[in-house]
Structure formats: structure tokens, C-alpha cells
Amino acid sequence: MCPMGHVWRDKNIIMGMDMHIEQRLKELKLILPTASDPQGSYCNCVRTGNLLYVSGKGPVAGLTEVPKGKLGREYTTEQGYEFAKATGLDILAAVQLELGSLDKVSRVIKLQGFVNATQEFEQHPKVLDGCSDLMAAVFGEKGIHARSVFGALSTRANLPIIIDSIFEVLEE
Fold first, then answer.
1. In Å, what is the CA distance from 89 to each residue of 96, 101, 119, 133?
2. In the chain, how many H helices and how many E strands?
3. What is the pLDDT of residue 64?
4. Helix then strand then coil, % of the chain, to nearest 5
5. What is the residue range of 143's domain?
């Protein structure tokens, strides 16, 4: 359940979370890639207090070929979902690199997605669900978050999706 009483659409995704996150990743048969490097004059993560801001990530880490193009033209909604999931794995890799362990995440606060799409494309929320479902599967109820999703005229390197995120982390 979300803090304001809204019900998560798939309760099966968030059950059974009495384990370490690395153990949960193995159970889900997920392997974190090496975190991608920033593509400009910025860093992957900035921590202030107990919040960790993660810079925009795309589906580039751990893939044999980096996808380039628009949803609704080169790619389907289903492919976009998988790109968002791959982007989520890169986000988690960056968080793990920054914190040393994903067990230090106390909550996923927000995801913000920018979908490189044609003007006619209308399935932006379904695309970002790839990352949202991943966070809920990995962190359980702590992975349920607020989010925004926008259509973009263009994105860095013509990637099909860019996602930035905010995490609450345990006090040091």
C-alpha cells in the first residue's frame, strides 16, 4: 500500500521481503551491471542528509548493443518496458557503488522518466513500469515510489529512455 492508502497494482511483486537485497537479486535472477559512467560534467550520485539523488540513467550498462531511437517508431511499448528495467538495473548499480550495499536503501522515493517517443506515442506510463516494477520486486514495499513520466522530443545519445531517481538511505 502506498503511504496515502492507494493499493499497488500487483501485490505479488512485493511479498516476502525479509532478506538482504543482494540475496533478493539472486532470487529474482538479476545481475547488476557495472554502473555506467556519467556522460558529462556531473557525478552519478549526490547525497545530502539521508537522500541520495541519482543522475539520469539510460539502458546502456550491461547490454551488448545500446538502443537508439524512439518509442512508437523504432521500438514498441514492450521493448520500452525492458529498456526501463535495464535502466533500473543501472540505477541500482550506481546506488550500490555509492553506498557499498543496497541494504542501506530505506526507501525508493521517486522515479522520473523521460521517454524518447514519437508525437503520437501515448504509452509512457507502461514504459516506465519496467523500472517501477523492478524497484518493487527488489525492495518490496520500500520500493513503491512516487513518479513522473514525460515524452521527450530527444534524449542524450538518442536513448529511448532516461530515468533519474531519488532514494532515502539509512543514516551513517
1. 10, 14, 28, 12
2. 3, 5
3. 85
4. 35, 25, 40
5. 11-169
Domain assignment present for 140: yes
Arithmetic mean of pLDDT over the chain: 91
Domain assignment present for 90? yes
In 3D, which of 104, 147, 103 has the Cα closest to residue 9?
Answer: 147
- Is residue 45 included in any domain, yes or no? yes
CATH of the domain at 144: 3.30.1330.40
pLDDT score of 63:
80
More confident residue, 100 or 12: 100
Give the span between the Cα atoms of 108 and 2, in whole angstroms: 12
If you write DSSP's letter for every residue of 120-161 in order, what string do you get?
T---HHHHHHHHHHHHHHHHGGGG--EEEEEEES--GGG-SE
Reported as a single tens digit per residue, the pLDDT across 1-34 is: 454 444 445 544 444 455 699 999 999 999 999 9
Name the residue with cell 497494482. Answer: 9
Torsion sign across C-alpha atoms 123, 45, 94, 24 = negative
pTM listed for this prediction: 0.90
6 in any annotated domain:
no
Q: What is the pLDDT of residues 54-68, one digit of tens each?
A: 999 999 987 889 999
